[in-house]
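Please describe our next protein:
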Amino acid sequence: MTDDDKALRLALAERLAASGHLRTDPWRAAVESVPRHEFLRGGYFERTDNPGPTAWRPVLPDAPGWLGGCYQDASLVTQIAGTIAPRDIRGEILREPTSSSTLPGLVVRMLEDLQVEDGNRVLEIGTGTGYSTGLLCHRLGEDLVTSMEVDPEVSFRARAALGHAGYAPYLIAGDGLAGHPDGGPYDRLIATCGVTELPYAWVEQTRPGGIILATLPGWLYSSELARLTVEEDGTAHGRLLGRQVSFMIARPQLPPPLGLLPDIDEGQERTTGLPPDALDDWNTRFVAQLAAPHVQRLSLNRDGRTEHLLIDVDACAWAALAQDGDAWTVRQGGPGRLWDDIEEAVAQWRADGAPGLNRFEVTVTPDEQTVTWSRV
């Protein structure tokens, strides 16, 4: 620990407090004490400014600005394409990020939202770099913290970083969606990956009255933070918090490859009063996901015009939208009618006053997850 990184930690805590993310003294003490740079000793990737596809370049500890970058309130990508670390690259890489150190403002806001109390036993799903795990250890004590990470290499690096920072929680390399029943029941469970379906195993492993905090995304990539309380009857119930929080989706729940696209010149065509750019709105897109939870979205340029395609790979259903003058048309094929379902859900939501996502309620039972909203 040096005077430089101590000053950076104190400055980070001050910024997070000023922004409203850091609200209580115990968590502020954690941010001021836990050295984030220890969890980024392997370097991180920064996005390039080049035109075209998104490219990433490594920033290693011997680079100017590395230490200061560790204490910016920013997410820092630490793995690309499931295996590639910053030290593996010279130059740039165009593949997709698969692990990161989440921006500290979001980390501490979620930890505040978890509403921990002294003596709480916590299960964290998604160790990542281990920084949030370190904050939990400082707040509660390492003996009360269990953290799971699906990637063994990521878990190994987190263990080393936590050791350098002075913490030794119980770390597990395994499928976090299954939880860790041997350590339960837990008072709190927090997930730092997105889950399209909240696993009932998490409910089973959280004591009645305990809290689960998790991000619920979809394959249209609108997501919200949900806080659920486990009930005596074995169900969990709560609300979305309206945070617009995004995390990488848990790997077992990622969408399937699109494969060969359907023939979108076939199918039934009609006009639609809901243009595809309605889905650019975060809340509208979230409602659309509820109606069509297994849909992916892409754009195609054909014959000089842009067509917007929604496709459910497993169901072999699709909808293609295109502009015809001032109107929009939709062609749909396969079993069911994707755009009909989305139109109906969005129309009902708007008729109910288009309530904000903080008015949406989530219930998880052994059989299903349901999300509903309250009328304005």
Q: What stands out?
A: The two ends are 52 Å apart (CA to CA). Residues 352 and 375 are 5 Å apart (CA to CA). Residues 102-252 form a domain with the Rossmann fold fold (CATH 3.40.50.150).
